[in-house]
Amino acid sequence: MSITTVTESATRPQPPGPLSASMTFVWRAAVKARHMPEQLGDVIMIPILFTLMFTYLFGGALAGSTVEYLRFLLPGTLVMTVVLLTVFTGVTLNTDLSSGAFDRFRSLPIWRPAPIVGLLIGDTLRYMVASALVIGLGLLIGFRPEGGVLGVVAAVGLILLFAFSLSWVWITLALILRTPAAVNIAGLLFIFPLSFVSNVFVDPETMPDWLQTFVDINPVSHLVTAVRALVHGGSPGSEVGWVLIACAALVAVFAPMSMYIYRRKV
Amino acid sequence: MDKPAVEITDMVKTFGETRALDGLDLTVDAGSVCGMLGPNGAGKTTTIRILATLLLPDRGAARVMGHDVVVDAGLVRRLVGLTGQFASVDADMTGHENLILVARLTGMKGATARKRAGDLLEVFDLMEAADRRVGTYSGGMRRRLDVAASLVAAPDVLFLDEPTTGLDPRSRSQVWEIVQGLVANGTTVLLTTQYLDEADRLADRIAVIDQGRMVAEGTSSELKASVGAATLHVSLRDVAQQPEAQRILRDALGSDAHAATDSGSFAVPVAEPEIATAAIARLFNAEISVKDFSLDRPTLDEVFFALTGRPAHTDRPDTVKESAA
Fold first, then answer.
1. Domain limits of chain B?
2. Which of A72, A249, B224, B319 has the most CB atoms lying inside 10 A of its own CB?
3. Nearest residue to B75 (alpha-carbon basis) of A63, A27, A166, A12
4. B21 phi and psi, to 5 degrees?
5. How many CB atoms lie within 10 A of CB A89?
6. pLDDT digits (tens, 9 = 90+) for B141-199
């Protein structure tokens, strides 16, 4: 076979549709994870670490017994784990952008957002792995969700939706900042107050007023309250609505902003 | 030769204070190889990135196979292939997987994509490394894979941005063979290079770019002819005699030695070859000991110097390096 045959033989197919192109990027992420399993280290280690650490570190002190505390804490640990993992979406994208791979993608006849949407779909699968680990490990050490399978599935679904929406913030950062390390630092600086200054660990009643005000408007608090209710079979009331509003707002602002930057990126 | 494959008119692109392109005009005939020659920062990469729809021009228009790169960007992407200056293959995937990825993104399905990837690996002599991660490849293998990836959709126009920069001589000649093979098949190639011998060897026409403008365009012989009929190369036995020798030749030939260093060897443009003999005789009469001399057609290095007043290989530190990101 010679170079002449390959350049002649190719029939030029119709470009792929948006879904097909996006799913090809999900395939790419899966292939990369297979070759570099250490890339899954975060979705395996962080859930295990957080679940065990928070349960045994705070459990006895805050609620008297770990089993009792798990009932309150595990939904929060679940939210915090996934919310923290979303930062890595930005880090991955930034690494990709600085590698030159995106030059090729952007010169191909594909739906423009496909590489980013594919990345988000792939990361949603990673978040599902992390969620399963937190819940599985929780069940082993005494967590009993009163809402049953349905309640847990609904809670995880809500968390994944929030994670997807929040990821657009990191994607925007990844497109603006120069290095993966910078994205990581900016992301963590933002994510720590967002996740800790909430009702994940303790009842906000014990906090000073000004802090309570932040906790009350923090979407992570609403998410945690909704997840606690769903997991334990209670009624989340308006909390789900607040979460959905926060998701819509995040996507409405950051998705168009990131796509605008992506299209014009040098 | 119907419509040109690439047509750029009055293209301007600025990055902050830097004018990367400053009214560039360039036409590439379908089925030909055009070599864009210029030093770092001349605007070569910016031109390629605009043509491959990665950058928007500030002013001016560019058409690829008759389609505007801004208005019909989607259509242009179906017709072009790009091998950028920085490896755009994924080090965490195998060679085969990298090509399957591109094949699927051009719209090929499962088995077709795998077959296409396999065919290209065979042609580019990468079969043995097909299932190894690209991270383990040598620079030459990576570049070949990169070129293969840009040929997956059999593009009408292929852009190669400094395709042999940083390659060893063997890999370099492999890339050259690939380009020559493509051209034999009717693909239009626009390549950028800082290597004058590369442009000389591969390109049908050479566009000399400097500071975002085209300073000369033509075949290699035309460019050489435009500089003067010939170049007199002189090599002295005694380096200390160089200033005296250059002065004498300036008087005799009416032109200055260019890009001269104090090595005892230098070159002087010669308008009429007949007077070169007399010039050498004058060196002899002045008791300057000439080790060696020759009368040659000018090299592209000399062409570049004559056109821009600067040697071609100098990096200009005052210019922001193009591309990145």
1. 6-224, 229-297
2. B224
3. A12
4. -125, 135
5. 28
6. 999 999 999 999 889 999 999 998 888 888 888 889 888 888 888 899 999 988 888 88
CB proximity B14 to A under 8 Å: no
Asked if A243 and A157 touch (Cβ cutoff 8 Å), the reply is: no
> Which chain A positions have a beta carbon within 8 Å of B74's beta carbon?
109
Cβ contact (<8 Å) for B92 and A32? yes
Positive or negative CA dihedral for B137, B138, B142, B145? negative
For residues B128-159, b (16+ Cβ closer than 10 Å) or e, as one string? ebbeebbeebeebbbbbbbbbbbbbbbbbbbb
What interhelical angle do B95-105 and A18-35 show, nearest 10? 170
Decide if B187 and A1 are in contact by the 8 Å CB cutoff.
Answer: no
- Asked if B132 has any chain A CB less than 8 Å from its own CB, the reply is no
CATH number for region B6-224: 3.40.50.300
Q: Hey, what CATH class is B229-297 in?
A: alpha beta
Separation of alpha carbons B64 and B190, rounded Å: 11
Q: Is A38 on the interface with B (CB under 8 A)?
A: no
Closest CA to B102 of B87, B85, B81: B81
Same fold, B6-224 and B229-297: no
Residue with tokens 């890595």: A88
pTM value is 0.82
pLDDT in tens, A77-103: 999 999 999 998 999 899 888 887 888
Of chain B residues 175-214, which have a CB less than 8 A from chain A? 178, 181-182, 184-185, 187
Which residue of chain B has the CA closest to A9?
B154
